[in-house]
Amino acid sequence: MPMNLKDEIVAGESYSLEFKRVPNEEREKYLKTVVAFANGKGGRILFGVANDRTVVGIPNERIFAEMDGIVNSISDACAPKIPVDVCVERVDGKSLIALDVFAGTRCPYYLKSQGEKDGVYIRVGATTQQADDATRHELALESEGRSFDKEPCLDAKISDKTIKALCAKMYKTARWNCKTDAERRKVKRVTEKQLEAWGIIKRVRDKWVGSNAYALLTGDAAQSIRIKCGVFKGDTKAVFVDRREFTGSICELIEQAHDYILAKINMGCHFKGVFRRDRYELPPDGLRELVINAFAHRNYFDHDAPIFVAVYDTRVEITSPGGLPRGLTAEKAISGCSKIRNKALAEALSYMRYVEGWGSGFLRVNEELADYGAHPVEIEDAGIATRLNVYRVAANAQSDRHEGNEGNRECNHEPNEPNRAPNDTNGGTNGTNGGTNGTNQIVECLRETPCISLDELAKRIGVSRRTIVRMIDRLKKQGCIRRKGGTRGVWEVL
Description:
Layout: H1 5-11, E1 17-20, H2 27-39, E2 43-47, H3 63-77, E3 78-79, E4 84-91, E5 94-101, E6 110-111, H4 115-118, E7 121-124, E8 127-130, H5 133-143, H6 160-176, H7 181-185, H8 192-198, E9 201-204, E10 207-210, H9 212-218, E11 225-232, E12 240-248, H10 250-264, E13 267-272, E14 275-280, H11 284-296, E15 307-311, E16 315-321, H12 330-335, H13 343-351, H14 361-371, E17 378-381, E18 385-391, E19 409-412, H15 439-448, H16 454-461, H17 465-477, E20 481-484, E21 490-493
Parallel strand pairs: 1-2, 11-15
Antiparallel strand pairs: 2-5, 3-6, 4-5, 7-8, 9-10, 11-12, 13-14, 13-19, 15-16, 16-18, 17-18, 20-21
Helix pairs in contact: 10-11, 11-14, 16-17
């Protein structure tokens, strides 16, 4: 049931609601908010309400003069022309001026006195902030129905050979991310025509031109992106324990970031009867979903700006450049609402099974976190960046969630040593020496049951099949195991 005006005032300022006491005395402030609302999803300014939510009202003899002054100020000070509506509202016997600002279609809107660069403002939570360069450019493209990832990247190296390599890589990744053999059999190969339909490549005068999405998917230096990962002591960035920086294609960086997080969080074991199942303190698939979200929905205008992954004592923090897409709030995102910022990348990531359904990601992650006894994902929109926080829990936090299963109990392994990244060849912790990413349990299982399938191995270890595939590949590259006899063969521990 929608709230009445008095209830909205009691609830306080929000993404789409602002309070101003007197119009003329706060002219510059409310004009910034008008611009911000027009650049977003629209909003309402209530004149005659103080910041502390006190309804002070506007004297009746001044109502119409103030309304005319507001409309004239917006027309004189803002560009392009912003669509607004103004009316009188009554609360507790007092008159208020309600200014409704509608979402504009000619973004970016700005204050003439500050210019097209410095005069652009956006709404971040319940505050109005000056837009950065990347946000201004994105607003301009969006108003024309375009997205940055579909724009041509003229410096990207492209040929028939590199296009075929990308198609083959996407096909292989899609099959790898499938959960069942039946799903893998349904995957169709990617073709040049399909890439063109998605906006990843374009034919110009009998030559292929790659888009920004093409460069991001191939790891081309023209759109080089990176991710910075670190482990910190305590809950601040004051003391580094470990840090790594990775560069490459989007797919490579997703896997590297996910592996890094798993190597740095704790792992515990859950006993069901006499069987022991190891599990991380946070759901691996849920963490992977959040990493994918950071790459799928970030702002790529400033491609040099990295994504940050920080592991603290109490939480895992993932920060991506750019605020939430226009019109999307943290509350809407958590509830399942999604707005696609990078349309070509969205098609590619969906084909490769990195995403199952747009809008369902946070809902799915929060269900997994609840099963682990963890708090829901926390989203912070800082305007120039979006931050996702997942609060860590002990590996035995869910022991009380197994009512009715006699013999169930949980224990803790030693916490992961946060001084080396996964696959570190300089003495770092890895799965072959009692390490932190669960590969030691894989070795034990393969030694005990050489003919075990990947699905059964994933079930026994307590992680997803694709996580098992990554760990198996790592062990094979390190020369720890090998496969004898093909698909019907057995595993041999070296």
